[in-house]
Automatic annotation (TrEMBL):
GO MF assignments: citrate synthase activity
Reaction(s) this enzyme catalyzes, per UniProt: oxaloacetate + acetyl-CoA + H2O = citrate + CoA + H(+)
Keywords tagged on the record: Acyltransferase, Transferase
Keyword Acyltransferase: yes
Protein name: Citrate synthase
GO biological process, one term: tricarboxylic acid cycle
PANTHER family reported in the protein's UniProt record: CITRATE SYNTHASE, CITRATE SYNTHASE, PEROXISOMAL
Entry similarity comment: Belongs to the citrate synthase family.
Native organism: Roseburia inulinivorans DSM 16841
NCBIfam families: PRK14032.1 (NF010635)
């Protein structure tokens, strides 16, 4: 669509109607306390309303001291294993950490060498799109947003599946494994189509290689010359592990549970989760972080001047800079308080890579923002549990050093998180059966209908 498309115009009538809509959408904040409604389904310490049970992962942000729960450094466990230990334990030369962890999440135990080999063979076998899918679907009307492309492709795969609505466990597992295998192709080919049709770039579609891991295949199909270094593949593999799972309550995984609980098909559930992950308060934050830093680099003349950086951060909170949303992207988390373990792990990798690639000055700027932002947010907002850098703070920077295009940052999150969504969908389908249906209390008045001529 062009910029002047009349279909997208905000007319005075729309402005007027939206004012009416805003006026009747205000709920007195006091009523939330009165009726004990947890805003954002969380209490002020970030603890979510308990809505389900899971064995897939555990997100920990507090510890008990003298019988009292206190904020603590964050920890993340996949099927009982600390992610920090998993990443440290994966063979230094292996780029199949994502596959190993996918097996762990889906089947509950660490795979043996043979099990992992069999599993990766299975994923390779499924990494084939239906005939002409690229030409007929991905190349048609390419969207400028790859998450939109991805969601449309997922919904379209429904029409190619003879058992699309079968929600028996083996069939749902098959669909999930196929989606795990196909997400890199759907995302990267969608990006190639966009670059070709929107920017006139040369079009190339590399088929995936059977012997490559997910991380290696992403780099192979993305780059015109298909070349990448082992360090690049290792970093991307680590990024995928850090993004693949985060409990049942995060917005997109909860969406998987919610939508799956209606008994719908895998494609509908996963497309809904993609829609959730696209949001800038969730997976879309990594793009925002990089764009915010691009803006900061232009506005802040001296990157070593902390006062100048602090002024810019304050302007962000006052909605006077960047996207005027009032947010410092990459900071804060719904659950974590003192630290997000994923950001801590990422930081050490990013620091190493920044030295190798000559990005030390940028890294210093990130480190200064990391230090100043929590204090500035605390001055301007009411903080209950503490704010620290989240996983997205460094992921965008890492991807830019890897030369990955910004358009693919959130899809890479999705390529990782589909493993978590799949594990949760299987858990929901296998054990639940009860449709989710929470309550909203009506706090509006009752009124008698007024005939048209009397209004
Ligand atoms: C993730 C996020 C939505 C969590 O918000 P939350 O659950 O309200 O977090 P907290 O309870 O700790 O926030 C306390 C206050 O600080 C504000 N705050 C938290 N992080 C903030 C940030 N990065 N920038 C500005 N304000 C922030 C919150 O809006 C809240 O103020 P409010 O009650 O007036 O709305 C929020 O931190 C955010 O929007 N961060 C930026 C986007 C981002 O990086 N998302 C990726 C998450 S992995």
């Amino acid at each position: 669509m062009t910029k002047n498309n009349p279909f997208c115009e905000i007319t005075p009538e729309l402005e007027h109607l939206s004012e009416l809509s805003a006026k009747c959408s205000v709920i007195d904040p006091e009523l939330y306390s009165k009726y004990d409604v947890k805003r954002g389904l969380r209490d002020i310490n970030g603890k979510g309303v308990l809505v389900g049970l899971t064995e897939i992962s555990d997100v920990c942000s507090t510890k008990i001291v003298d019988g009292v729960s206190q904020p603590a450094d964050g920890e993340l466990y996949y099927r009982g294993y600390n992610v920090k230990d998993i990443i440290a334990g994966i063979d230094e030369n292996s780029h199949f950490g994502f596959e190993e962890c996918t097996y762990l999440l889906l089947f509950g135990s660490l795979p043996t060498k043979d099990e992992l080999k069999e599993f990766t063979n299975m994923l390779s076998k499924y990494r084939t799109l239906p005939t002409s899918f690229v030409r007929d679907i991905i190349m048609k009307a390419p969207s400028r947003d790859m998450m939109n492309t991805l969601a449309r492709s997922v919904l379209t795969l429904y029409s190619y599946d003879d058992r699309a609505d079968d929600i028996s466990l083996p069939n749902v597992l098959r669909q999930c494994l196929q989606l795990i295998s196909l997400f890199p192709l759907l995302s990267v080919y969608g990006y190639q189509a966009y670059k070709h049709y929107h920017d006139g770039a040369s079009l190339f579609i590399h088929p995936p290689k059977e012997e490559y891991s997910t991380a290696e295949n992403i780099l192979h199909i993305l780059r015109a010359d298909s070349k990448f270094t082992p360090l690049e593949a290792k970093l991307l593999d680590t990024a995928l592990i850090l993004h693949m799972e985060h409990g049942g309550g995060n917005n997109s995984t909860f969406t998987t549970h919610l939508v799956s609980s209606s008994g719908t098909d895998t494609y509908s559930a996963i497309a809904a989760s993609l829609g959730s992950l696209k949001g800038p308060k969730h997976g879309g934050a990594n793009i925002k972080v990089v764009k915010m830093f691009d803006d900061m680099k232009k506005q802040v003349k001296d990157w070593s001047n902390e006062d100048e950086i602090a002024d810019y951060l304050t302007k962000l909170l006052h909605k006077e800079a960047f996207d005027h949303a009032g947010l410092i992207y990459g900071m804060g988390h719904a659950v974590y308080s003192l630290s997000d373990p994923r950001a801590v792990i990422f930081r050490s990798f990013v620091e190493k890579l920044s030295e190798e690639k000559g990005y030390e000055k940028e890294f210093k700027l990130y480190a200064t923002v990391e230090r100043l932002a929590p204090e500035i947010i605390a001055k301007e907002r009411k903080i209950y549990k503490g704010v620290s850098p989240n996983v997205d703070f460094y992921s965008g920077f890492a991807y830019s050093m890897l030369g990955l295009p910004v358009e693919l940052y959130t899809p890479i999150f999705a390529i990782a998180r589909i493993s978590g969504w799949s594990a949760h969908r299987l858990e929901e389908v296998a054990h639940s059966g009860k449709i989710m249906r929470p309550a909203y209390k009506n706090v509006g008045e009752r009124k008698a209908y007024v005939p048209m001529e009397e209004r």
